[in-house]
Amino acid sequence: MNDKRLYSPKYVREILDRYGFKFSKSLGQNFLIDGNIVRKISQEGGITKDDYVLEIGPGIGTLTEELALNAKKVVSVEIDKNLLPILDKTMSSYDNVEIVHGDILKVDINKLIDEKLNGGPVKVVANLPYYVTTPIIAKLIEEDLNIESIIVMIQKEVADRMVASASTKQYGSLTIFVNFYANPEILITVPKTVFMPRPKVDSAVVKLNIRENDHQVDKKTFFKVVRTAFNQRRKTILNSLSSRELGLDKEDVKKILDECDISQKERAENLKIEDFIKISKTLPSLDIY
Fold first, then answer.
1. What's the CA gap between 72 and 82, in Å, rounded?
2. CATH number of 9-210
3. Which of 152, 189, 209, 216 could bridge across to 183 with cysteines, CB 3.0–4.6 Å?
């Protein structure tokens, strides 16, 4: 690389014009063009020279470049083949960067970590298209990968839901899903003005600190209970759990709630993750499941 940094809007436009690149709406492409944000993601995400980083969606390499300057090795997975020749050029001066062409939802991430990232643990950094945020995060935290943390740029509304507290309107099944596997925190908020092209909404950078799952509950049952409860979140927990999906009638649910010391009049949004764990554990003990 020369002394031009990739977050310069003028330089970004110069590169895109040189390669005749057109943004893909279907891929949700929005490139960062703000040096302060780029540096903050790396700094507040805790990227150091000891770290192996898996980046998802490098674009033209704006954030990749900053990661390369601060990490031991960066492997970036890019789905758009039209960006590969650009990345070959923009990352040519960094011998600790490797670009992999592929769809992260289809990539064998365990194999990638083993073969290219020293077996982990890795820090994942991603600027995710809004439409695939949840599927990608779900894959990363559900597949028992050797991941230490996930630092992800997502729609601010989704970030607020991830870190929401019980009894708030943002609190829901996504909150519980993320907190089941990780401790989430919002690092920075990111205005829509620092992207090219400019999206319609603001974003936020969230760090998910992955923790060992010590809940000792059947995950399938747990998430089924959570989904059922929030599908009708304005109903009382007694009525929302009395459903065909769970195969429970009101008398069954009353027994469960009494056993868990949970009021029948509570709503799903008032229950903490520990309450849903207690409910899920109680199902088999009452011979209902």
1. 27
2. 3.40.50.150
3. 209
